[in-house]
């Protein structure tokens, strides 16, 4: 099973000879067709906004718990 790491550095992206090249951290590199790149970008945007919402919700829940008076 692959090991996953979380990075906070965006990948570099270039268009060359009708392909989209993505260079990420730790030497990750991939070439995509234009259609695959566009679909990937849409999926990344959707999941990125979803994950950002999860972070905001988790922060809200934590703050709400901290504001709650202790139960006797």
List the helices and strands and how they pair.
Blueprint: E1 12-16, E2 19-23, E3 29-32, H1 34-67
Antiparallel strand pairs: 1-2, 2-3
Report on the structure:
- This protein has one domain.
- The radius of gyration is 19 Å and the shape is elongated.
- With 72 residues, the chain is of the alpha+beta class.
- The chain has 1 helix and 3 strands.
- A hairpin with a 2-residue loop joins strand 1 (12-16) and strand 2.
- It has a 3-stranded antiparallel β-sheet.
Mean pLDDT: 93
Report the helical percentage: 40-55%
**H/E element order:** EEEH
Distance between the termini: 46 Å
Largest sheet, strands/sense/barrel: 3 strands, antiparallel
| Anisotropy-based shape | elongated
- Biggest sheet strand order reads 1-2-3
User: How much strand content do the residues show?
Assistant: 15-25%
What characteristics describe this protein?
72 residues; alpha+beta; 3-stranded antiparallel β-sheet; 1 helix; 3 strands
The gist of it:
This protein is an alpha+beta fold and 72 residues long. 47% of the residues lie in helices and 19% in strands.
């Amino acid at each position: 099973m692959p090991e996953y790491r979380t990075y906070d550095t965006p990948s570099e992206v270039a268009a060359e000879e009708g392909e989209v090249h993505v260079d990420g951290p730790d030497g990750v590199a991939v070439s995509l067709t234009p259609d695959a790149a566009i679909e990937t970008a849409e999926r990344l945007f959707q999941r990125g906004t979803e994950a950002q919402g999860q972070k905001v919700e988790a922060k809200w829940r934590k703050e709400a718990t901290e504001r709650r008076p202790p139960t006797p």
